[in-house]
């Protein structure tokens, strides 16, 4: 009997070994594919930044920094209007406020409506510090209406009103409808509240900030073995960010990589559908990702760490500086200021905006920080397949807490950056190339006449310059900044306390 059992165990053991080895071989090959850069993308981004280039650019910009004064001639001319900027304390909204002031708008003609007051260093003194601020949660219709209805100083009260709607929450990787409530409340319902409040306040121009991530389709993470043998990369591992999807029916929720782009797509449709002769509307889609201040996620997130775990060094993407995004908003406003523009080619539609240069790789970004920052920095290379395998149990754990709230009594919620490590993050970390083609056309051809103020090399070098100034007297520590993702976490916590008392 024992001899029989030992004989029958051998095929089972051999089968298990073959299965395990096959799985390991599959994962190793999958890791190679996830670590690859398609030839088409390499052609679009053929050169890497060198130390000599970085040092020369740093020295040039240190001697002649790019400021609102230095590019004032590129800002669309002053209009005799008043302005509400939702999210005006943030990255894009803040640059819109600074550019409005630079072109001569008086501070009392501008109002920031945001969850928190400005804390950017470039908005804490001078004319920016005299801009009116109203704290409001745009997910509340009443709070939004009160912020818009606040009386204006008599000197500007009769001017026509432009609304720049830049407020949003960024939750980068949640993709289940179970976790979509927060994005929907702020990004979708909040946008409807802003449109309604703008109409009640008599605004005749509304330009919103949406996101280039709207056009991203979910990346295929599990490549079938028969395609893997032919060396085929995961489907949609590289994508072009453009506006074509806007002219098609709105995709279903599962066709977006996460709740955030799904909510921004819905919000964009709300804004553009509101276009009329009385309220001319349009949207700006910044490419992934937006940078331009140490508070940003893209470059500021790397600067904030001495050691950065990453699997994205090979990834090529288009980036866009907040200055360029703000200029595009003002370009669109200049067109929509005319009542006849409601039927123009620019009204009621989005425009993708990126820096005026080819895409770069994250390796370039990391090398820039390592070369120019006064604070120490190095990357800790991770294998993509390992990160991907970890992302699933993190997502399952988060969804279990969402599906069964009673579990929160015994299980802690995930905190910090690990809570965002879910499968959806791989789609936003794909090779993403943005196209300025439409926005760069002349106004007569339906474009914005957009050119961009600064390149990615200049913009990122300027941000490191600002970082270095902030840290020249700081020994052994880094200053703390609140970026858009951590701000979204703070808002979510505040909402949870208000709703559940926890």
TrEMBL record:
Lineage, broadest ranks: Eukaryota, Fungi, Dikarya, Ascomycota, Pezizomycotina
MF GO annotations: 3-beta-hydroxysteroid dehydrogenase [NAD(P)+]/C4-decarboxylase activity
A single BP term in Gene Ontology: ergosterol biosynthetic process
Keyword Glycosyltransferase attributed: no
Oxidoreductase as UniProt keyword: yes
Name recorded for this polypeptide: NAD(P)-binding protein
Species in which this protein is naturally found: Parathielavia appendiculata
One GO cellular component term noted in the UniProt record for this chain: endoplasmic reticulum
Record-annotated 3-beta hydroxysteroid dehydrogenase/isomerase domain positions: 84-212, 254-368
Keyword terms: Oxidoreductase
């Amino acid at each position: 009997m024992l001899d029989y059992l030992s004989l029958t165990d051998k095929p089972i053991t051999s089968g298990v070994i073959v299965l395990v080895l096959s799985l390991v071989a599959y994962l190793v090959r999958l890791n190679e594919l996830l670590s690859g850069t398609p030839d088409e993308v390499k052609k679009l981004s053929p050169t890497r930044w060198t130390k000599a280039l970085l040092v020369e650019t740093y020295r040039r910009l240190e001697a002649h920094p790019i400021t609102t004064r230095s590019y004032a001639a590129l800002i669309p001319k002053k209009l005799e209007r008043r302005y509400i900027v939702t999210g005006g304390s943030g990255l894009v909204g803040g640059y819109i406020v600074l550019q409005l002031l630079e072109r001569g708008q008086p501070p009392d003609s501008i109002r920031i409506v945001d969850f928190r007051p400005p804390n950017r260093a470039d908005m804490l003194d001078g004319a920016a510090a005299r801009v009116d601020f109203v704290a409001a949660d745009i997910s509340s219709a009443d709070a939004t209406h009160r912020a818009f209805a606040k009386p204006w100083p008599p000197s500007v009260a009769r001017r026509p009103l432009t609304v720049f709607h830049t407020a949003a929450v960024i939750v980068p990787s949640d993709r289940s409808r179970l976790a979509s409530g927060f994005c929907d409340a702020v990004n979708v319902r909040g946008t409807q509240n802003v449109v309604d409040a703008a109409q009640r306040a008599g605004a005749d121009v509304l330009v919103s900030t949406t996101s280039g991530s709207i056009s991203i389709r979910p990346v295929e993470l599990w490549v079938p073995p028969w395609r893997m043998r032919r060396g085929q990369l995961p489907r949609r591992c590289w994508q072009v960010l453009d506006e074509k999807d806007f002219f098609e029916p709105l995709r279903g929720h599962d066709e977006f990589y996460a709740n955030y782009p799904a909510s921004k797509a819905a919000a964009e449709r709300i804004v553009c559908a509101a276009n009329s002769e009385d309220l001319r509307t349009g949207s700006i889609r910044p490419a992934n990702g937006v940078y331009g201040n140490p508070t940003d996620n893209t470059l500021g997130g790397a600067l904030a760490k001495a050691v950065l775990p990453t699997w994205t060094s090979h990834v090529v993407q288009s980036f866009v500086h907040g200055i360029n995004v703000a200029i595009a908003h003002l370009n669109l406003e200049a067109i929509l200021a005319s009542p006849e523009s409601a039927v123009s080619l620019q009204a009621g539609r989005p425009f993708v905006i990126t820096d005026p240069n080819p895409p770069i790789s994250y390796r370039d970004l990391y090398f820039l920080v390592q070369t120019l920052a006064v604070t120490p920095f190095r990357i800790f290379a991770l294998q993509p397949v390992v990160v991907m395998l970890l992302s699933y149990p993190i997502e399952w754990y988060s969804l279990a807490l969402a599906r069964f709230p009673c579990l929160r009594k015994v299980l802690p919620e995930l905190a910090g950056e690990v809570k965002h490590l879910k499968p959806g993050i791989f789609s936003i970390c794909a090779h993403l190339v943005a196209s300025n083609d439409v926005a760069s056309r002349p106004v007569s051809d339906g474009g914005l006449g957009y050119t961009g103020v600064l390149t990615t090399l200049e913009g990122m070098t300027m941000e490191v310059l600002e970082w270095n100034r902030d840290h020249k007297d700081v020994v052994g520590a880094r200053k703390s900044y609140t970026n858009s993702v951590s701000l979204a976490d703070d808002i979510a916590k505040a909402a949870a306390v208000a709703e559940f008392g926890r």
